Amino acid sequence: MNEKYYLEYPIEKKRFSKTDLKIVEILKEAGKKVGEIFAKQADGDFKGGGFYPTDATRKEIEEASKKEPKILDPYTVVKRDSSGKLCAVYYHEEYRDVLKEISDLFLKASKLASEKSFKKYLEIASKEFCHGDYSTLEKAWIAVDNKSFLHLMAGPLGSYADRLFSLKKAYNFNFTYTGTNGSYNPLNYVDVIRNMLPPFGSKARQNVSADMIKVRVDNVICIGGRNASLPARAVNYPEDINTIKKCGIKIVVYTNNIERRDGQMLLPLFRDFIELGVQKSFSDDFIMANAVRLVLAHEITEAIFQYEGAWKRLKSMSNPVMELHSSIVGIKACGFQVIKGVLSQKDLEAILYVMLMRTFSDYFIRKTAPQVENYLVGYRVFYNYCLENGAIKLDGDRILPNASKMYSCADQLANVVMHFYAEASEAEVQSFFDKYSSEYMYGYFSDKLLKYEF
Ligand SMILES: [Zn+2]
Known about the structure:
Blueprint: E1 6-8, H1 18-41, H2 58-67, E2 76-80, E3 86-90, H3 91-94, H4 96-112, H5 116-131, H6 134-143, E4 150-156, E5 171-178, H7 186-194, E6 213-225, H8 226-229, E7 234-237, H9 241-247, E8 249-254, H10 255-273, H11 276-279, H12 284-304, H13 310-314, H14 318-339, H15 345-366, H16 373-388, E9 392-395, E10 398-401, H17 403-423, H18 426-436, H19 440-444, H20 446-449
Parallel strand pairs: 6-8
Antiparallel strand pairs: 1-6, 2-3, 4-5, 5-6, 7-8, 9-10
Helix pairs in contact: 1-4, 4-5, 5-6, 7-12, 7-14, 10-12, 10-15, 12-14, 12-15, 14-15, 14-16, 14-17, 15-16, 15-17
Bound molecules: zinc ion.
Zinc ion binds near residues 298, 302 and 323.
């Protein structure tokens, strides 16, 4: 078993029925096997992962795909045939034996499951892991009722592992159960954020109504595949606008992954960097609850604000703009939540500090997961913008923040980034990011940063 690609968390056993515990044991086995498949896909140093032959160039692959479109299908492995020519094999053929084992485990679990929509999902997963119709699988995933205590998302999902074309989907397995903390009120955010859609965003997804957005705040049981090496704070699917119109959007927030990333990294950094007088009135739990809220606000913003054609217009700046937009507009929405009495002033303050400290916590993640730069660059923009406007001051080796000035910086930045996302060109965005994404802070705090080994 490749331990890099399978991760398990302790669960609150008392909350599981006997049958649930049986299902857990069966699906853990399935998760490990998904990790085995991903190990084949994640071929260490090679940019194309295990998806393409190591000696093939981008150009050769593109050329060959003109005659054989299957080569650039997200669900195939590209190989050389006996004559050295490039050809493609579907995942469900390439990994047939392991997929059959996983499929059997899904079927076994489905027979025990009592909640209808979850049972149905397992049945369909059992079928499609062998047949390869992933859109049917995705629809079954969206259809799983929020009332289902157990929840699973499995299949080839997300193209980050393919650094050659950002195309091939990698195997993932996220098995979770409903969290106990009911105080997050996700639907409340949906309402507020929908009302923030700008009038010029006529091409945004205004027509995704609140009842089409399902949000779960879950605890993770185990992770297999790509997410095991970089546990996701949340997932947000589908990507395809037509599927969204038909089936809606689903967001799952993974609380214990957030605890792992923000609790083990961000929290000690917060204590070490922020001025003592400011930080002493914030308990660890209070900061962590607001780290979850920031993720929630980010994901809901990302689900609601999507502009047709933004990818084509913003090109290399698409991901950085979208990620900064989701966080900063999410924070602006949290400000409205204070006015409504849903959040306290102090919650908002903590959310701003979480955003600020990610500049440092995710800097450590970049060393092993370079794709995190898509987010990190936006955190630096926020940090530098706050610094330039006096919302944070450097006081020796500590940061002295002024929360109300930070909020007004977030508000201004939200307006700028909303414009970027809705209508700006790649060049305009690039010059703004060039101005504000300086990495000066890592040099300034290098003595402190060198102490940590995350
Ligand atoms: Zn995001």
